Amino acid sequence: MKNYAIVLVLLLILNPAQGKEYKLISPDKKTEVIISIDSGISLKTNYLSDEIFSLEDISLVLADIPFTTDSRSVKSAKIISVDQIIHPPIKEKYKQLNDRYNELNIKLKSDFALIIRAYNEGIAYRFQTRFKDSITVEKENLTILFEEQDLMYFQKSESFNSSYETPYENTYIKDINQEGYYCLPALVKKKTGINVLIAESALIDYPGLWLKGSRGSALSSTHAGYPVAFKTEGSAYQQGQVKEHANFIAKTAGRRSFPWRIFAISDSDAGLISNTMVYQLAPPNQIEDVSWIEPGVVCFDWWGRRNIYGTDFKSGVNTATAKYFIDFASDFGFEYFLFDDGWSKQDDLFAINPDLDMEEVMAYADTRAIDYRKKMKTVTKSDSHKINLTHCGGWIASITHLSGN
């Protein structure tokens, strides 16, 4: 639920020799965004009067629909100021969120619009389109410019079929390899100690944003192509991954809002933890009844079960290890214990691991007031992507199907 007040404020238009420039300032006046529209769209972000990054070549490339940007292409530009309270229907970091920002809406004559928001905690932008028929998005362009000595923390993948399990690395922007892909979130720490966290929100009917190394101090955007064919061979983790991509990234509705591109800004690491921009920019909850959802902290056995030591049993997918984790969760106030892949055969949910006495484990969890969940990777003949079981061999199960990108 959102309670809000919207106030129109003055739009500041600068008048360079060519093109148009607009200035947007965060409510606390610490962050300043200058948007330039000429032969393209660019954006410069200043924090406490110092430039911390800039964006260039902000554009959408659609099949058969030109994306035109020059000083004559702007139909209207309006700034609004919003100060509202968001009450998360499902428990979040905070009971309520202060959603305060200034927003610039630039409408182009070609039925495109660019929305930019300046929060005290960062900036964000997104595209909107107003076409009657469906559209094909060939590419979304974005170049992010930092300084060469800024340090980037990232997770790298050799392909878009990623498990998102590789360790985070860090290196200077100038040394970012142009090979491979970098997933979000990605963190850039400025020489001054300012943090810029790159993320996205409202990702609907559209591929996720990835980054690639570019020239010098630049990062460029990239997306996985629209899926054409999927793998049916190999292990259960390989099946269902995209085997072939089209030369475009999305087929989608012509009248829609695109994902938010988020640049969270903080002069402390603590500010990154408390940042809630991804939640604030997400669409409102669509579930009418959320009473059955009980959020909590989960104890996860995937890596830990292989590293328990100082016990009188061998760690693994077995009853003794499960009880050990349940004790740990209970002692430290965790609400849940999660079985990862391995508690059953990948192709047969009812073929329980013989080293697990599931009845005993479930009964033990009840005595320690710990709820339990089970997760597995499964491939069925029907290639189902969602499996929901209410009863499995007499005990309650919650199964999540995992698939590659």
Low-confidence stretches: 1-14, 375-405
Envelope shape: globular
Strand content: 35-45%
Q: What summary fits the major beta sheet?
A: 11 strands, antiparallel
- Helix fraction bin: under 10%
* Overall radius of gyration: 24 Å
Number of H- or I-type helical stretches:
4
Helix/strand-derived category reads mainly beta
How many structural domains? 2
> Separation of termini?
32 Å
Oligomeric state: single chain
At CATH's second level, what is the architecture of the largest domain? Distorted Sandwich
E-strand count:
29
- CATH C-level of the largest domain: Mainly Beta
CATH topology of the largest domain: Beta-galactosidase, Chain A, domain 5
Mean pLDDT: 86
In short:
By secondary structure, this protein is mostly beta strands. It has four helices and 29 strands.
Supply the key terms.
disordered C terminus; 9-stranded antiparallel sheet; 405 residues; mainly beta
Overview of the structural elements:
With 405 residues, this protein is mainly beta. The chain has two domains: 2-280, Distorted Sandwich (Beta-galactosidase, Chain A, domain 5), CATH 2.70.98; 298-374. 8% of the residues lie in helices and 41% in strands. The chain contains four helices and 29 strands. Strands 1, 7, 8, 9, 10, 12, 14, 16, 17, 23 and 24 form an eleven-stranded antiparallel beta sheet that branches. Strands 2, 3, 4, 5, 6, 11, 18, 19 and 22 form a nine-stranded antiparallel beta sheet that branches. Helix 3 runs parallel beside helix 4 (358-367). The longest helix is centred in the last third of the chain and has 13 residues, at 319-331. The protein is globular. It starts with a strand and ends in a 31-residue tail after the last strand. Residues 1-14 and 375-405 have low confidence and may be disordered.
